[in-house]
Design a protein that fits this description.
Blueprint (H helix, E strand, L loop, with lengths): L16 H25 L7 H11 L8 H22 L3 H18 L9 H8 L8 H18 L14
Helix pairs in contact: 1-2, 1-6, 2-6, 3-4, 3-5, 3-6, 4-5
C-alpha cells in the first residue's frame, strides 16, 4: 500500500506570467467585489469557500470544476444539502459528516462537482444559517458575482475564451 503513495509523476510546469497575473487579478477582483457588495448592501454575501472558488476560476479556468454550472450549481446544491441535513440532524459531528458526504454525492449525481462547495454544509451548520434564504444570499449572489468577474478576467485578450460550457 505504501508503495502506491510515493508518487512517480513530475511536477507540473510553472504557469506563464499571464496566468499568474490572471490569478492575482481574479482573486483580488472577485473577492473584492463580493466584499464590497457586502459592505454596500449590508447583506452578508461572502463565505470562506469563495476563496477556494477563486483558485479554480482564475488559476485553472479550463477545468470542468471551474465552469459556471459547477460553480453556481455546486454551491447551491451543497448549501441546500447543508440546510436540509441541519434541519433533520442538527449541527453535531454526525450531521456535519453526513452533510458533506451527501453534498458530494448530490454534486456528482447532478454533474455540478465543485470542490470548494463541499465545505458549504459545514458553513451552514457552523454559521447557524436560518432559513432557505441563505441559498439566495450569500450562496447564489456570491457565486454568480464570482462567475461574472471570471467572465471579464478570463476573457481578457484575443486568445482567451471562458467558459468552456454553460450547461
Amino acid at each position: 500500500m505504501l508503495h502506491k503513495m510515493k508518487g512517480g509523476g513530475t511536477v507540473p510546469a510553472r504557469p506563464d506570467t499571464l496566468q499568474i497575473l490572471t490569478g492575482l487579478m481574479g482573486g483580488v477582483s472577485g473577492i473584492g467585489l463580493v466584499a464590497w457588495l457586502t459592505r454596500l448592501t449590508e447583506v452578508p454575501l461572502l463565505m470562506a469557500p469563495f476563496g477556494a472558488t477563486c483558485v479554480l476560476l482564475f488559476a485553472a479556468p479550463g477545468a470542468p470544476l471551474a465552469q459556471p454550472r459547477n460553480v453556481i450549481g455546486g454551491h447551491l446544491v451543497s448549501a441546500l444539502v447543508g440546510l436540509i441535513v441541519m434541519q433533520w440532524l442538527g449541527t453535531g459531528p454526525l450531521a456535519m459528516a453526513v452533510g458533506v458526504g451527501v453534498a458530494i454525492a448530490a454534486m456528482q449525481a447532478l454533474r455540478v462537482v465543485h470542490p470548494p462547495a463541499g465545505a458549504n454544509p459545514l458553513v451552514v451548520m457552523m454559521s447557524g444559517a436560518v432559513g432557505y434564504d441563505f441559498l439566495l444570499m450569500p450562496v447564489l449572489a456570491g457565486s454568480v458575482s464570482l462567475v461574472l468577474v471570471a467572465l471579464l478576467i478570463n476573457n481578457l485578450g484575443t486568445e482567451r475564451r471562458w467558459p468552456n460550457y454553460w450547461l
